Predict the 3D structure of the following.
Amino acid sequence: MRRKWPAVLLFALALAPFARADEGDLKKAGEAYKKQDYKAARDHAAGAVKADPKQPDAHLLLGLACLGLRENQAAADALTELIKLNPKLAFAYDRRGDAHLKLGKFKEAVEDFDAVLGLEPQSAPEHWRRGIALYYAGRYADGVRQFETHRTANPEDVENAVWHYLCNAKATDRVTARKQLIPVRKDARVPMKEVWDLFAGKLKPADVLAAAEKVPADTDKGSEARFYAHLYLALYYEAEADAKKVIEHLTPAVEKYKIGHYMWDVANAHLAKLKVEKK
C-alpha cells in the first residue's frame, strides 16, 4: 500500500519540536533521527525521558525511533506515555496504531486509528492502514467501507482493490467480491497488474510469480517484486480457504524477502498470528 500523506509533512510534523530543543539528549535524539540513525535516536531519547518524564517531545522521539527499529512494543509504550501527556495529539494515536498493528494487536490498532479519525476526520480517505487493521480484527464490512473511501484518494492502487476484495469476500462471498473488484489500470509496480488479474479471475498464481521473477533477483526491486508476489498469493489463498498454501507463500514473503516497507510488517504480523493459532 502507498502512504499518501506527504513524506515531507510527516517528517516536519515529527521533527519540528526538536529544532528548538536545548542542548542535551533531546537535541541529539532529534539530530540522530533526522539522519535515520534510529538506535542513537532511541538511546538519546530514552535519556531525555529519564531526565524529564513530562517532556512530550522526548516520548515522541523515543516512540518514532523504536518504530524505525521495529521495536514495536517499546514504541507503543513510549507513545502511550505521550498520549497521557497530550491526549489530543492525533499523530501519537496514529503511530501507536502502527505499532499495535505490527504487534498483531489488531483490535487495539483499530481503536487507535478510530481515535485519529475522531480527532482528524478529514484524514479518513487516506487511512488504508485502518482498513488492514479492520480486516485482521474481523470487522469485514467496515473494512470494505474503508477501502472504498480510500479509493477516492488513491484510485489506481491494486493493493487497495485487493484488500477491498478480501474484506468483501468475508463480508459477502468470493463471487460478489470478484464482481465488485475495484478496477485499477495504472499501477505499474511489478507484479501488481498480475495480482489484480489473479483476483479478477483472469490469471493463475503461477503467472504472478512468473512476472515477479522477471525482475533480477539480486536487486531491491527484485526482492520487492518477489515479496509482493508471495504476500498477495498468500492472501489470495486465504480467501480461497487453503491454509497450506497461505503458509507456503507467506513464509518466504516474511523470511526470505524482507523489505523495509510497512507491508512487510503486515505480513510478519499475519504469519505470527498463524503460528500462534497453529500451536
Remarks:
- The chain has 16 helices and no strands.
- The chain has three domains: 1-86, 113-187, 188-279.
- The mean pLDDT is 93.
